[in-house]
């Protein structure tokens, strides 16, 4: 059987990978290996690798890499550790092909390792635009990859313009949307019961990550978002940020929450996260899920700051700066019946 190996370091990547693994399991000519690293293995981010195991998948390798500090310096040093660990893991696993997802830096390092070890690389979500260093990483992976899977024709054409041969580029759609369309998420009734929501209660889902180039402002930025959420006054499910530079300041501010309607979670099972998107009235922050997944549910998204700058957006997205009054105004607009009932707002982008 052909061995397809995946690397995942965050819950976002897992959303891309899980539907593909299910397809592999249904094909008797294919087998898989999963390498987990980074956030999946950190207690402060919920040990999310355990969700992979609960989903019924096998983890072949655990690569511990993350140095404490969560700034630009520790990010680079952590990647150095990962590169050393990857060569050993890939030598053991001997993949026929390595399948990478998205624009995270750990995937770039694996593409570098695989290229030097003669292992073919395939890349999901190729050709997209994303803000800050992530966009540079994504296109760097493209230059190291041998097969490119793009979410739409615009992105596929961008890969071709980067100089990649057309026969290597496939317009395959966005795999993380498959489970949304198939209904693979926790039901509204179960979400209400599990998270103590009243049936008609409006809720907010919030995810805000630090922006690498704006590390010094990460604490202030999340504080402004919390001020806005406090003014709105709706029950809010807030999920921990990723482990990029500035993460410590974001988490420190979140952990100081007391006596308001914001409920903080280190990590959530993907089924619950998608169920919350289905149940929520608006998603607030700067997560790519507000851009990529929310349109399928017709969910308004208040996108704050520059993290998603350059990405195509459906009409469910309202952009604003890291200013409390602007965030409040954007949330109020998103909650208006005239906005949520808009025919254009409910059209998926992908």
Describe this structure in words.
- It is a single chain.
- With 350 residues, the protein is of the alpha/beta class.
- The chain has two domains: 179 residues, 3-Layer(aba) Sandwich (Rossmann fold), CATH 3.40.50.2000; 156 residues, Glycogen Phosphorylase B (Rossmann fold).
- Helix content is 42%, strand content 17%.
- It has a seven-stranded parallel sheet, sandwiched between helices. A six-stranded parallel sheet has the order 10-9-8-11-12-13, with helices on both faces.
Question: What's the topology here?
Answer:
Layout: E1 2-8, H1 11-25, E2 30-37, H2 49-54, E3 61-63, H3 72-93, E4 97-101, H4 105-116, E5 121-124, H5 132-144, E6 147-150, H6 153-161, E7 169-171, H7 178-182, H8 188-195, E8 203-207, H9 218-232, E9 235-239, H10 247-255, E10 262-265, H11 270-279, E11 282-285, H12 289-292, H13 294-297, E12 301-304, E13 317-320, H14 324-335, H15 337-340
Parallel strand pairs: 1-2, 1-4, 2-3, 4-5, 5-6, 6-7, 8-9, 8-11, 9-10, 11-12, 12-13
Helix pairs in contact: 3-4, 4-5, 9-10, 9-14
What key attributes describe this structure?
single chain; 350 residues; alpha/beta; Rossmann fold; six-stranded parallel β-sheet; 15 helices
Strand order of the largest sheet: 3-2-1-4-5-6-7
Number of helices: 15
Kindly identify the CATH topology of the largest domain: Rossmann fold
- Give the overall silhouette: globular
